[in-house]
Specification:
The chain has about 375 residues and is α/β, with parallel strands linked by helices. The protein contains 13 helices and eleven strands. The protein starts with a strand and ends with a strand. This is Cellulase (Glycosyl hydrolase family 5).
Length: about 375
């Protein structure tokens, strides 16, 4: 069972790649390791690393390699997201897929060739690092389909092409892809539950209750504190292999839906519930450090998601996570199976199936999900 954190640099957010400071990274990793966590998920910015389809900047690649070495010094393993892609409400594209050069990042053969080159270049630099956990193709890439439309078949082919490159260039590592919850909750969507639950080494789940759950039911409601558990069970239902691992790759306590005072209790209850799931590979909290308010135009909920402040001081939420990591033991529960019904819109907050599953949870019944 792995416990980690999504790494948000304390200085400069992900713009730190433009003014990379290895000393700052080392200090951040020491503060993360001090919480008892064992891994970080890190985010190169695609336009910074690959400003031209034929150029992956050697200095940027070397800085990423230094980041992995710094993590290794503090006992942290590293999972690398490749295509950013989308982060904290901002989208990042290199200029060679924008404006006069606009191309679809999921369907254009030249773009896909460039992405494969990028993956291959990073893999060659990282694959022998003892703490390299593999690649995620990108953070919630399905958020980019509005400006890069594709069919479900094209989405699946894109995933296969890049995961194939990952495996070819860095074999034997747990390479994955990630989507936000539209993959489970939106019926008219190109990325499918079948993509999420069958492609890659394990299924990744991103559980955010500001998707309407906390607003509809309350921040510490049954529905909110069981949401991550529910998504893990929903993901398991779609897997072809019943032993397929599920990684809770993102979960966090976002304000204002969950107040700073409520955040420790939300974390304790959410993780206690999800630790009853079979085949859970690990939990990676979002995120390590707060965002400096000198950086403007973020949604309010993005600024104070960290376990630590920008000065690397542990917050009450960070203290709660450290206690959980120290004391928690996964205890898989006996589960009562229920059959999935309705389309994807009924699986989300307010939907008939979602309500059915949560009613059982409210009654103390741990439910699994079976496909009809």
């Amino acid at each position: 069972m792995r416990f980690g954190v999504n790494y948000t640099p304390s200085a400069g957010w992900f713009h730190h790649w433009l003014d990379f400071s290895l000393d700052d990274v080392k200090a951040d990793f020491e503060s993360i390791a001090g919480l008892g966590l064992d891994h970080v998920r890190v985010f190169p910015l695609w336009p910074v690393f690959q400003p031209n389809r034929g150029l992956v900047r050697p200095q940027a690649v070397e800085q990423l390699a230094q980041m992995l070495d710094a993590a290794h010094e503090t006992g942290l393993d590293v999972q690398v997201d490749v295509l950013q892609g989308h982060l904290s409400s901002f989208d990042f594209y290199p200029s060679w897929v924008q404006t006069w050069h606009r191309r679809n990042i999921f369907t254009d053969p030249d773009v896909i060739s460039g992405q494969r080159f990028y993956v291959r270049t990073l893999a060659e630099a990282l694959r022998d690092k003892p703490n390299f956990l593999g690649f995620t193709l990108g953070n919630e890439v399905n958020l980019l389909t509005e400006s890069n439309p594709c069919t479900p078949q094209q989405a699946g082919e894109w995933i296969d092409a890049l995961l194939g490159e990952c495996e070819s260039a860095a074999p034997g590592l747990p390479h994955v892809h990630s989507e936000y919850d539209a993959v489970w909750y939106e019926s008219d969507h190109s990325f499918l539950p079948e993509h999420a639950a069958t492609k890659g080494a394990m299924t990744t789940v991103h559980s955010w209750v500001f998707n309407g759950t906390a607003q509809r039911y309350g921040p510490l409601s049954t529905e909110s504190v069981h949401h991550a558990e529910y998504l893990v069970e929903l993901a398991k239902a779609h897997a072809e292999d019943p032993r397929r691992p599920v990684w809770l790759q993102e979960v966090g306590a976002a304000q204002p839906e969950i107040s700073a005072e409520q955040a420790p209790q939300f974390a304790e209850q959410t993780l206690a519930n999800v630790l009853t799931c079979m085949n859970l590979w690990g939990v990676t909290w979002w995120c390590s450090h707060d965002v400096d308010r000198a950086l403007v135009d973020f949604p309010e909920r993005e600024y104070e998601l960290g376990l630590l402040t920008t000065e690397r001081k542990i917050k009450p939420l960070g203290e709660a996570i450290a206690r959980i990591v120290r004391d928690a033991e996964p205890v898989p529960a006996e589960r009562t199976p229920i059959t999935l019904h309705g389309d994807r819109s009924s699986w989300g907050p307010g939907g008939a199936f979602f309500e059915e599953w949560m009613t059982l949870a409210r009654d103390g019944v741990r439910a699994s999900i079976e496909l009809g």
